[in-house]
Design brief:
7 helices, mainly alpha, Cytochrome Bc1 Complex, Chain D, domain 2
């Protein structure tokens, strides 16, 4: 019985620690190398509007991860203006915006048109420092 209690405690501690450490977001290679089919100068206003509607509440107006719902999220929201964030390929950003993970929702149902998500990627590029 003592062994069971020890194993239970170890299991609980392991789960608790795991929840505090966010794993690296692995993006399939086909998305890493995917080219953005939407010219960055096309429909800038639409991309900004879509970002405001779907992203700003968590990620903030400037992409700092400081939106009104940011404190409700458990994972790291990222800083879209940072060099680290901006060094990702458009395909990586498209993948993350499309499929999400953890608190980041999947957007294939809310925005079924790939073009809309590409326009958001283009807008996120304008948030660089």
């Amino acid at each position: 019985m003592k062994t069971f209690k020890i194993l239970t405690i170890i299991g609980i501690v392991t789960i608790a620690l795991y929840s505090f450490v966010q794993e690296k977001w692995e993006v399939p290679e086909k998305y890493v190398t995917m080219e953005n089919p939407i010219d960055a100068d096309v429909d800038k206003g639409i991309g900004k509007s879509l970002y405001a509607k779907h992203c700003k509440s968590c990620h903030g107006k400037e992409g700092y991860g400081d939106g009104p719902k940011a404190n409700e999220q458990e994972g790291e929201l990222g800083d879209f203006s940072s060099e680290e964030y901006q060094s990702q390929t458009d395909g990586e950003l498209f993948y993350k915006t499309t499929f999400g993970r953890d608190d980041m929702p999947e957007y294939t149902k809310k925005m079924p048109d790939d073009e809309d998500r590409w326009l958001i990627v283009n807008h996120m590029r304008t948030l660089a420092e």
